Amino acid sequence: MRKLIAGMKISADGKMEGPQGTADWVDAWSEDYGLTPQIDACVLGGGMYPGYEWYWTSIQNEPDKPIWITGNAPTPAELEWARFITQTPHYVLSSSLTSALWPKTNFVQGVEELAALKQQPGKDIYLIGGARTTASLIDAGLVDEVRLIVHPLIAGEGKPLFAAAQRRRELELRKVQQLPGGRISLIYGIG
Ligand SMILES: NC(=O)c1ccc[n+]([C@@H]2O[C@H](COP(=O)([O-])OP(=O)(O)OC[C@H]3O[C@@H](n4cnc5c(N)ncnc54)[C@H](OP(=O)(O)O)[C@@H]3O)[C@@H](O)[C@H]2O)c1
């Protein structure tokens, strides 16, 4: 069966965004978890989809222009992700959104449709976020692995990644790696 793998860039105190609504400690929103070669679909929540679509469409249309959130020109890895997602179906969990700019975006209403997606043949699936969606899919037992990049700061106020999770879950540590800039990559399997 295809694996559903979540990837998140968090602060050392477990926040996935600061009080102003962005994770301003993140320099680039590229896929930095090593997932691209093994995935052929993405899942994300209705809360983050409009901003995500806008962000990556801006990069696709104007690859030299500084971008919102980071304020920098896109990095080579961001440009690579912007290209990759034009060919990659995105499944957006939402009961309120119905239209998207991208032809390969599909809206799904409940976790059962994502359970069925995992049963279909294909490569693994990247769960991009946000926090509520990640927690609800972990609670539903659909997430096989969590990849965290922990940034060296205490964000203080902000939105905790796992605040909406309701059930206790044991994690199996599979890999730890020190990254430049004091960041740490953690890969956990979920039992
Ligand atoms: N630090 C990071 O690495 C990282 C990564 C990704 C995102 N983010 C941040 O995360 C924020 C968004 O997170 P969020 O928690 O506010 O929103 P979200 O998880 O993107 O979306 C929540 C919405 O998804 C739908 N949904 C979630 N679980 C569902 C379920 N079990 N069944 C049906 N629908 C479900 C609902 O949409 P409807 O109300 O339409 O039904 C819900 O309102 C953004 O600000 C983004 O910047 C950070």
Q: If strands are numbered along the chain, what order do they take across the biggest sheet?
A: 5-4-3-6-1-7-10-9
Q: Termini separation (Å)? A: 15 Å
Integer average pLDDT: 95
The structure class reads alpha/beta
Q: Number of DSSP strands? A: 10
What is the approximate shape?
globular
Considering DSSP H and I runs of 4 or more, what fraction of the residues is helical? Answer: 10-25%
Spans of at least 5 consecutive residues whose pLDDT stays below 50 are none
Radius of gyration: 16 Å
Number of helices: 4
Strand content: 25-35%
User: Could you give a short account of the major beta sheet?
Assistant: 8 strands, mixed
Query: What pattern of helices and strands is seen along the backbone?
Result: EEEHHEEHEHEEEE
Ligands bound to this protein structure: NADP nicotinamide-adenine-dinucleotide phosphate
